[in-house]
Amino acid sequence: MNIAELLLEGRQRYGKRVTVHFDGGELTNFEMIHRAEQLAKVLRDAGVLPGDRVMVMMLNCPEVIQAFHALWRIGAVAVPVTPQWVAREVRYVVEHSGARVLLTSPLLAAKVREATVDISPPVQLFVFGDTDVPGTCNLAPLVEQAERLGETFPSETSDPALFVYTSGTTGQPKGVVLTHGGLRSNVESMMQTLGIDSETVTMIILPLSHVFGILRMNMAAVNGAPCVILPSFDPKHVLQSIERYRVGLFAAVPTMLTSLLNYPERANYDCSSLRWVESGGAPLPEELRLEFQREFKCRIKEGYGLSEASCALTSFRYDEPHRAFSVGKALLGVTISIQDDNDQPLLPEQEGEICAKGENIMLGYWQDPVATQSAIRDGWLHTGDVGRMDADGFLYITGRKKDLIIKGGENIAPRALEDALYEHPSVAEAAVIGIRDPLYGEDICAVVVLRAGKTATSEELQQHVAKYVNKFRVPAKVVFLDALPKSPVGKILKRELRLRMQ
After folding, report:
1. 205-247 pLDDT per residue, tens
2. Which of the four, 17, 42, 144, 337, has the lowest number of CB atoms within 10 Å?
3. Distance CA 319, CA 338 (A)
4. Element (H, E) at 287
5. Phi/psi class of residue 207: alpha, beta or left (left: φ > 0; alpha: ψ in -120 to 50)?
6. Cα–Cα distance, 492 to 201 (Å, whole number)
């Protein structure tokens, strides 16, 4: 049941064919498997054992895919981390996950070295390429000279395959433990729902450190069709790639669609091959969906999911008419229930918490039994999102119970930013909330009360927070108030703040 078998099954089903386009070059499925097997041998010889956690931190490239499949081949657990994270954030994941091996690129070698320099026992740093950063090992020649590891570790469906770190309301990221069976179940459900044929060229622009990108990676392995990989999202490169490779499908978060629509030279590119786009990660405004479909002459299929569900829970079928504001129906093998505050199911059209069951649901949060028991009750994953379901089973998301900010499809916990603000000597109180934003859906607003006799500017506080988190998570707006609204017991009323700031 090892998820690494997906590449092997694709080779058996379709034979030798080009499956990856990257940076002007191409790789066949045979070459991808060959290099993954060589990398697996190198890692096993380096002491990586079944169940070991290995961090993968790189921009999108073929080596990321090879790394995932090599790790799964030897029964290890992949721990992807977004390349934009600062050293402090990387260090937390290394220490929390217990990873003792880290795979990265020359571009990021200095950052991971800074994050791991004094961790004991030492973390082995492998780099896909040459670098002068001390304490690192160049993987490229080792893989080139290695024999292939032919066998695959016999993982069970319930064995961990992936730790995905996602923000929670407590501030520190939680390690979502996803299994071989859960990842495979999600892939098969989405393939059946979307009805993608083996000739449709797909494109990966989502980060392969995110469950949405990893789902697309695994779907491409099953599908056997050529896949264009972009290192990161850039509207010009996306449009160029659609034209050059005749891309028929890609997945994106709404902010990417907005950027493509607003790109000044969009009309210069031939995007007539594009048939449909999968949208997820954040709510898709109906006006954006209609405008994108009109301008690109394609269909957008919106879905809903989260890291704790191996990614996807709902989507529209390829032959299903769209329903405005809906995120589709539950995928095959997934059961959705709308429940009240007493965990009791509600009737159609009644609003409550969205809960889900299925093989794709996480095992739990790594080393956090309290959070796990809170999230999974009586077998149901409680998503923290609020919605309703109509009589035909279509889901509509209406809000969320969690105090998270979803900026461009990324969950951002206010607590970590508030803690950073409180480190500033001029800050007496702080609350971080999400505010509406035309590009990101939501952006970050810090509401601050200064200490008596102290001063600070918005720019000063933004620069201060940037010392603690990556640039994407720095508040876009800082508002100064004389006092924060509070409940009788002293709890800051963020709902009231959000109403004031809209």
Report:
1. 999 999 999 999 999 988 888 999 999 999 999 999 999 999 9
2. 144
3. 26
4. helix 286-296
5. beta
6. 50
Tokens of 491: 């709890």
Q: What Cα–Cα distance (Å) separates residue 421 from each residue in 91, 416, 449, 481, 486?
A: 20, 9, 11, 15, 19
Q: What is the pLDDT of residues 101-117, one digit of tens each?
A: 999 999 999 999 999 99
**DSSP one-letter code for 414:** H
Q: How many CB atoms lie within 10 A of CB 96?
A: 19
Hey, what amino acid is at 157?
Answer: T
Contacts of 457 (CB under 8 A, 6+ apart): none
Nearest to 365 by CA among 165, 101, 185: 165
DSSP 333-381: TEEEEEE-TTS-B--TT--EEEEEEETTS-SEETT-HHHHHHHEETTEE
Backbone angles phi, psi at 111, to 5 degrees: -65, -45
Strand order across the 311-315 sheet: 304-306, 311-315, 329-330
Eight-state DSSP code of residue 424: S
Q: 297: which DSSP letter?
A: T
| Number of other CB atoms surrounding residue 476 within 10 Å | 15
- The pLDDT tens digits for 402-434 are 678 889 988 787 878 888 998 899 998 888 999
- Walk me through the domains of the chain, giving residue ranges and CATH numbers: 5-235 (3.40.50.980), 405-501 (3.30.300.30)
8-state DSSP, 258: H
Dist CA 401 CA 262 (whole Å): 32
Residue closest to 246 by CA, chosen among 278, 197, 200 = 200
What is the CA 358 to chain-centroid distance, rounded?
Answer: 20
State the sign of the Cα–Cα–Cα–Cα dihedral 194, 363, 103, 231: positive
Structure tokens at 497: 């703040």
CA dist., res. 390 & res. 71, Å (int)? 42
Total Cβ atoms within 10 A of residue 117: 14
Write down the pTM of the prediction: 0.86
Cα–Cα distance between 101 and 49 in angstroms, integer? Answer: 11
Number of H helices, E strands in the chain: 15, 28
Sign of the alpha-carbon dihedral angle for 363, 368, 373, 376: negative
Q: What's the rounded Cα separation, in Å, for the pair 258 and 385? A: 24
